[in-house]
Amino acid sequence: MSCQNKGKEKSGVTYAILPEPAKLQPKPGQCRLSEAFQISCPGGMPEWEQLGHYLAALLRPATGFAWPVNEQGIPGKAIALIADASIVNPEAYRLHVAPGGIRICAGHPAGAFYAIQSLRQLLPPELEAGELRPGISWAVPCVEIEDAPRFPYRGMHLDVSRHFFPPEFIKRYIKLLAMHKMNHFHWHLTDDQGWRIEIKGYPKLQEIAAYRKETQEGHYSSQPRRYDGRPYGGYYTQEEVKDIVAYAQSRFVTIIPEIEMPGHCQAALAAYPELSCTGGPFETATHWGIFEEAFCTREATFQFLENVLSEVIGLFPGRFIHIGGDECFKGRWKNCPGCQQRIREEGLNGEQELQSYFIRRIERFLHSKGRGIIGWDEILEGGLAPRATVMSWRGAEGGIAAARQGHGVIMAPTSTCYFDYYQSMSDEEPLAIGGYLPLENVYGYEPVPPELNPEESLRILGVQGNLWTEYIPDARQAEYMAFPRAIALAEVGWSPKGKRDFGSFARRLMHHSRRLDELGVEYSRQAFGVRTAAVPAEGGGVEIRLSTLKEGASIRYTTDGQEPDNHSPEYSGPVKLMRDGVLMAATFEGGARASSIIRQEISVHRAAGRPIRLKHPPHSDYRHLPASVLVNGLPASETRFKDGEWLAWQEAPMEATIDLGILQPIESVGLHFFNDPGVWIYPPSAASLSFSDDGAIFHTPENMEERAEAGAQGRTQHRTFRPASIRARYIRIIAQPHGIIAEGAPGSGHLAWLLVGEIVVR
């Protein structure tokens, strides 16, 4: 087992550090901490002294030792914090653990702080309990570590507009980010459903915009909508914000506040309707989605925003202010005489350039105050503000375009960085927006697009995970959705690309989970549940393969619709199914179920496992998946639109040709489409079938019956085609994407997604 990338295991000692250090050399022996140890730090350097006290406070409660903090040079056993000017990167460090003591060297306190995080992960997990733990051997395995981050920006986001989280949880969230060497917290403070920061110059933002009369229940797409009938809200006072900012600074986390504009502003307009194009009235939004309202481009609006931003600048000392810029409908501007006059006066080419004017003007103001802006990738539309940093969320394309224009880029694509997506296929998962993002997909993300040249690649500043909270009502569920996926992304942002290894990460995470348990983190254990894969079985049918990352756990399964228990068959090799059915499986330890149950429908139809060819490749977010997922016998999920069984298109049609191998009668062809306009996913505008004996000449039979039905969850569509008395070897399916989304709908003006699942031939 390589010491460089396989978990750093030697002599039974695991160097389970997350994220993986750049260089780690195990050494023989241990450093046994005792009452004789002290902490030494550079004299006359207050930040280093504060770090010494931080380390002492971390060690005292569980060890029971005194841990005096003294200036460097006092003899005796010590954890020595050493300022080393030869270490240029402010986040880099060296950690040396020897039997006689521990040295932490860094050029800046931030690097020393990250060294402390590595050191704490080398100590027993009981350290995190915060209480005296007698009988624990407080020993650190000897090691030499030389470490520095790959990217300067490593962040997590939290939406507090849809659901409000108390200041105590915000601090806890920041603490967990810092522990895993993340250095930015993106605080999404305003949106249609709530304004969460006190602005003294505009008290109605606290009195009106911070509250909504009720909240939608269930999923956004559920019809008819249901509401809980309970007022909801809250906001952070400026004193609370200052306290949180100071807490983050002590852990070398920069907070980036987001004040949404020019769209996502209905809560603000409920308080100050005169800032709109129509004058209102408005109410703080009570359901999810995207709304038509936008800030009007009159002078009074800019004065309001500049005043608000001036107060925000006074609270947040970081370099950047995030101004949103996403999902802004232009319909109000189009019909607003004042906005149309602005377009004429500024010589703009329509509403797209009006948005660019809006963003550029805000950027000039912030630049005059010594700050820069970050915006979602829509700020590219109509022309990018000259000094803006782009946060690319709609895939890699926005990040590529911005980097090529010379702008800094933070990668946060939905496909790998949206932690409000489901993280397993278990029916026991809490309600989520609908995507599917398991731990290994987060870990496998490469932030630097291959399309960029070396110079352009340097403009990729880093990565960010986003936690939108429409379906996350409380702190417990926020932790469940964020962790351990945030830890995987932390390693993506910190560790050298060549050292990342998911097997090593999984082993270290298993060890690290004990530390999370001691901290009381409500992390998801779904990553250590059961995974399924399907391949065609020899002689017909479908072969299901099961696996788990949980070392030492067994997998038990059923195929009769009953939940597996300790008496169910134990998985020892591929399970072959010759007819439709349901496979259910879970991991077991010590005779008890140790994971959620996964439920996988199996469809053994005539096209299962047969060759399939696509004329147009799927969208780039889905190109890691083979075309065979459309005919692998595993029906796509009714709720998770990125479950590895859906393929997606936007511009080109989905055109697939299936070879059944021999000429045979065909009774029906079933097509499966996702249908969730709230996230821009629509069924096809048209779908057609044609058949061939030789794969060259195709024909469409007359009088072919077509029937469309909604799926069980109402978020999918099944279309069944029944040709009359036909025999064929080849089937060609063409599904046309919906096209441009209509004005007033979520994603208005953008191309809709077409998601295609299992193609079932009977």
Low-pLDDT runs: 1-13
Number of strands: 40
What is the molecular shape?
globular
Mean pLDDT: 93
The first-level CATH class name of the largest domain = Alpha Beta
Main sheet attributes: strand count, strand direction, barrel closure: 8 strands, parallel, barrel
Number of separate structural domains: 4
- Give me the CATH architecture of the largest domain, please: Alpha-Beta Barrel
> How many helices in DSSP terms?
17
Structural class: alpha/beta
Helix content: 10-25%
Proportion of residues in extended strands: 25-35%
What Rg do the Cα atoms give? 28 Å
Name given to the CATH homologous superfamily of the largest domain: Glycosidases
Compose a concise summary of this entry:
Helices cover 23% and strands 27% of the residues. With 762 residues, it is an alpha/beta fold. It folds into 4 domains: 139 residues, Chitobiase, domain 2 (2-Layer Sandwich); 342 residues, Alpha-Beta Barrel (TIM Barrel); 74 residues, Sandwich (Immunoglobulin-like); 150 residues, Jelly Rolls (Sandwich), CATH 2.60.120.
Give an overview in words.
The N terminus is likely disordered. By secondary structure, the protein is α/β, with parallel strands linked by helices. The protein has 17 helices and 40 strands. It starts with 8 loop residues before the first strand and ends with a strand. β36 and β37 form a beta hairpin. It is globular. The longest helix has 18 residues. The protein has four domains: 139 residues, Chitobiase/beta-hexosaminidase domain 2-like (Chitobiase, domain 2), CATH 3.30.379.10; 342 residues, Glycosidases (TIM Barrel); 74 residues, Immunoglobulin-like; 150 residues, Jelly Rolls. Strands 10-11-18-19-20-21-22-23 form an eight-stranded parallel β-barrel, surrounded by five helices. Helix content is 23%, strand content 27%.
